[in-house]
Amino acid sequence: MFFKNKRILGIDIGSSSIKIAEVDVSRKVNTLQNFSLVSTPPQATAGGDITDPGLLSDTIRQAVTELGTKVKSASSGLWGSSVIVKRISIPKMEESLIPEQIRWEAEQYIPYDLNEVNLDYKILNISSGQADTMEILLVAAIQEVVYTVSDIITGAGLNCEILDVEGFALANCFEANYGISRGQVVGLINVGSSVSNFVIIENGEVVFSRDMPLGGIIYTNEIAKTLGVSMAEAEGMKLGISSGQPVPDEVSAVIENTHDVLIEEISGNLEFYHNTSTSQIGKIYYTGGGSGTVGFGEALGKLVASEQLDPFLGLGINPKVFSRDYLRQIRNFCSVAIGLGLRQKGDK
Ligand SMILES: Nc1ncnc2c1ncn2[C@@H]1O[C@H](COP(=O)(O)OP(=O)(O)OP(=O)(O)O)[C@@H](O)[C@H]1O
Ligand SMILES: [Mg+2]
After folding, report:
1. Does the beta carbon of 339 lie inside 6 Å of ligand 1?
2. Is 80 in the pocket of ligand 1 (CB under 6 A)?
3. Residue 41 per-residue DSSP state
4. Can you tell me the mean pLDDT for 187-196?
5. Is the distance from the beta carbon of residue 77 to the nearest atom of ligand 1 less than 6 Å?
6. What ranges do the domains of the chain cover?
7. Domain 82-141 has CATH 3.30.1490.300
């Protein structure tokens, strides 16, 4: 027991970059020990889907070696259409009967062959408003993708202890930093490159989690199309604006117009939630590389009160590794990896 290694590597596999967070959960204050961000080889993913698992393993293995960590336990996440999270109401029943009922419900709600998915569920503490029903969060993950992701981690020489839903990891990171906001409803958005995770937390419980098939790459696409430049040039212009470099006026205009695409998608999810719940979302916290696009926070702020998520707010930080400047640079990229790294062996 004394020698139990309580560290786990949270590995967030993105289409733009791979993020690895080593978090020490054995102390009073959870501490970020180490962090790595490496580019994802472009040919390893397509449209947010994995196309070359071996290449991802190699990239992770190298990043872990460079981190110089001895930790072998890892957790990673599932995203996109490979995982479905759905809130359902079922008749009130004894806990032992729920799995059977869940299978039956899943037949109706999950558009995949149930023999090819891993099913899980969580009983929500919130009231359904009706005395004879209970609220359940149903989670279905495509087995093939579960195997692929865990093979990627194993292929990197690590032990894959936990596979989480990216949205849940995001929520985990939020709660570790901000605590459980009783009586409050908050939204979280992690704007990636091709996928963005959107989560709603009610009273400390995830009640909604859906990934949107778009992110920061849509700005790059639009710039490339409108200005007739390559994707690499367009990406350079987009990042250039963020760091205050001069770029053609047209670029700013394209970015400004493209915010609407993301905001509309978020707005659609909010509407869906508000149609099924009597609670109102107080605030959305945003993070993810794509949320660094110039003007994104302001555009979101027009829809709903919003604030940049601070993944370090309640964490201890290893001072040997992290300068203030480095923390500022990685802040938008860490949330999911930290949320994964905060998981402990044996967590569901
Ligand atoms: N300073 C910046 N300004 C604007 N956009 C940025 C900035 N830094 C990164 N990005 C964009 O953020 C995106 C990458 O973010 P992130 O690392 O969160 O994505 P990812 O997790 O790799 O992708 P996904 O999860 O969608 O597969 C890219 O689209 C990139 O262009
Ligand atoms: Mg991502």
Report:
1. no
2. no
3. P
4. 98
5. no
6. 82-141
7. yes
